[in-house]
Design brief:
By secondary structure, this protein is of the alpha/beta class. It is 39% helix and 20% strand. The protein folds into two domains: 6-121 and 363-370, Enolase-like, N-terminal domain (Enolase-like, domain 1), CATH 3.30.390.10; 127-351, Alpha-Beta Barrel (TIM Barrel), CATH 3.20.20. Bound molecules: [(2S)-5-oxo-2,5-dihydrofuran-2-yl]acetic acid and magnesium ion.
Length: 373
């Protein structure tokens, strides 16, 4: 039997509306843009991947347009004609010729895993060694920018039994205003919910030291990326003084960043994101570094659509500990899905598919409707 080969890679930029504006420190989202990858193999199997960022170039160094161009121009020629079933060899070929570009890599690694899972009749979680959980608890982000709207939204999510962990996006205005906003939401929700904040790098070290104290006093459980990503020592100093644990997010742009942060004692919690490590296998390398260093884990998102969300979920399902749960709610922020079989959220959890590959089937009509031309 001849080995199946990779025949082609096709990238599509898909723009989907959000259910409401989503306000982060650096950008307000009115829609989300997904890069969908279709990797076709000589045995007729297609693997699907996704690379998604937030706000063009506002969040990270890759934009949807650069991801598409780089996959089309640089990744595809390296992969076409290569064995489709050897993911180690395919990713090593990319490692030898491509620097950085972890978002684009993540789409490629995801599509290879999806194809191989379909080929072997195994869900991606099983391909990665096997799931130790069937569902993942999912946080919701309150980011309307308005305190009473956010409280109403949180109450609705509790009533629906969809979320009982809330992450508040702060950092775009004066810290005192943000702290009052967060404290009001925590007061309203009390012990019924875990309230956390994401500052998206907006504060200086000096502001962070005072603000983290106030947030801890207000009952906040976790503080994500309060200061700019690059200064490991400053992160360690803020972390040492904060009453609530600090989580590294933007600080991790590669597996090597995870190692440096762990070595520098910069944060007791890591946000894991497939896009920022280079795929579902790559993110597990960061997770294992954290585990070995006694750092707790959180399953993060770049607000991917259903493909990227389920790719993350399969990887996170294999981890022995995921102390801070996940925020894999990306599909719920969008008014439309490009899958026939949309992800299942029930009883505060995202259910991890049990069918081969990622367990996704593209809805061709919707894909065409929302695909950028
Ligand atoms: C981020 O910075 O964590 C994740 C959830 C959300 O609302 O924004 C993202 C990005
Ligand atoms: Mg974050």
């Amino acid at each position: 039997m001849s080995l199946p080969l990779i025949e082609s890679l096709e990238t599509l930029i898909v723009d989907l509306p959000t259910i409401r504006p989503h306000k982060l420190a650096m950008h307000t989202m009115q829609h989300q843009t997904l890069v969908i990858l279709r990797l076709r193999c000589s045995d007729g199997i297609e693997g699907v991947g996704e690379a998604t960022t937030i706000g063009g170039l506002a969040y990270a160094g890759e934009s949807p347009e650069s991801i598409k161009t780089n996959i089309d121009t640089y990744f595809a020629p390296l992969l076409v004609g290569q064995p489709a079933g050897n993911i180690n060899a395919a990713m090593l070929r990319i490692d030898r010729s491509v620097r950085a570009n972890t978002f684009a890599r993540s789409a490629v690694e995801t599509a290879l895993l999806d194809a191989q899972g379909k080929r072997l009749g195994l869900p991606v979680a099983e391909l990665l060694g096997g799931r130790v959980r069937d569902g993942l608890e999912v946080a919701w982000t309150l980011a309307s920018g308005d305190t009473s709207k956010d409280i109403d939204e949180a109450e609705r999510m509790l009533d629906l039994r969809r979320h009982r962990i809330f992450k508040l996006k702060i950092g775009s205005r004066d810290a005192a205003l943000d702290i009052a906003h967060v404290a009001a939401i925590k007061r309203a929700l009390g012990e019924r919910a875990s309230v956390r904040v994401d500052v998206n790098q907006a504060w200086s070290e000096a502001v962070a030291i005072r603000a983290c104290q106030a947030l801890g006093d207000a009952g906040v459980d976790l503080i994500e990326q309060p200061i700019p990503r690059q200064d490991v020592q400053a992160q360690a100093r803020v972390s040492a003084r904060s009453p609530a644990p600090i989580m590294a997010d933007e600080a991790i742009e590669s597996v090597e960043d995870s190692f440096n942060l762990a070595r520098g004692g910069a944060a007791p919690v890591f946000a894991l994101k497939i896009a920022k490590n280079g795929g579902p296998r790559a993110v597990l390398r960061s997770a294992y570094i954290a585990e070995a260093a006694g750092i707790a884990l959180y399953g993060g998102t770049m607000l991917e659509g259903s493909v990227g969300t389920l790719a993350s979920a399969h990887a996170f399902a294999t981890l022995s500990k995921l102390e801070w749960h996940t925020e894999l709610f990306g599909p719920l922020l969008l008014t439309e899905d490009i899958l026939v079989n949309v992800p299942v959220y029930r009883d505060f959890e995202l259910k991890i598919p049990t069918t081969p590959g990622l367990g996704v089937e593209l809805d061709e009509e919707r894909l065409q409707r929302f695909c950028r031309r």
